[in-house]
Structure of Lipid A deacylase LpxR family protein:
Amino acid sequence: MMLKLNPGAAVAAASFAALSALPFDASAGVVDDFRQAHAAGITTHAAEIDNDSLLLKRDDGFYTSGLRYTQQWTASTAGGMVRGGWRVGQELYTASDIKLPPARVGPPDHPYAAWLYAGVFSERHAADGSHARVGVDVGCLGPCAGGERTQNTLHRILNQPLPQAWSRQVRNEVGVVLHGEVAPMRWTPAPFLDVTPSIKGRLGNIYTDAGFSVLARAGRLNLLPNQPTLHGYLRLDGRWVGYNASLQGGYFSSGNPHTVAPKRLVGEAEAGVAWLQGPFEAMVGVVRRSNEIRDLPNSFGSQNYLRLILSYTH
């Protein structure tokens, strides 16, 4: 008798294994690191924008916008640093063409969806390049996330066409997502070059996936994230998708206008420049994400967007 493996369950198990690899004591380490960073650390405010319109094109679709604000505290430790913080963000997803009327939005095109969330996180970094991070986000998927109002406002500011089919977005669902990442080492073949591999995972009713990432940097490098730097970088990601509510609707919701099946393997590449000097930090990169929808041609479903991060420390 053959047992049929459920892809979502398999990826959930892989995600749990990735999160379990984090070198934290679940009952004390995460909380202690957060408290130490908050009590003794310096404060950083960071704004992050993902948007395909920043590439100076007038059409957008799929993952069309991501907005995040983070406040974090960083404290030095023997041989490294700890960080703790909180964040709030919003992600917007639309059909491939926002000018399509509601009646023409359906499979295999991307559903309209918005995810509004807030969360906390704790992380450790060592001078040898190893690091670990764990956190949890809680939020709302669907009309409660305010995606229609946000996108209409942005498009009026940018003088772009208004989206036509937010009336067919996925239904409301409260979501919880546990996320984590661990990098066991950093390889430094030259003083101006390093490569850091990591594993990461998310587990929840909005996103469940597990993946592997490689980050290569070249330039004036820093050993720890809060040190001065000026470098170019290339990040390559691959992830196995168990559940993606922006495509499938919330895990516990039903009656969605339309949903689509995700591709189980999704790749992403990002190339950019990072700079940190004194209290100011900036990072800009171009991201190429592969097709996320099983029944769309890869040439049609892939997408490009620009990522911009600005931060100030005091």
The chain has one domain: 7-313. The longest helix spans residues 7-20. The chain has a mean pLDDT of 90. The CA atoms of residues 161 and 267 lie 29 Å apart.
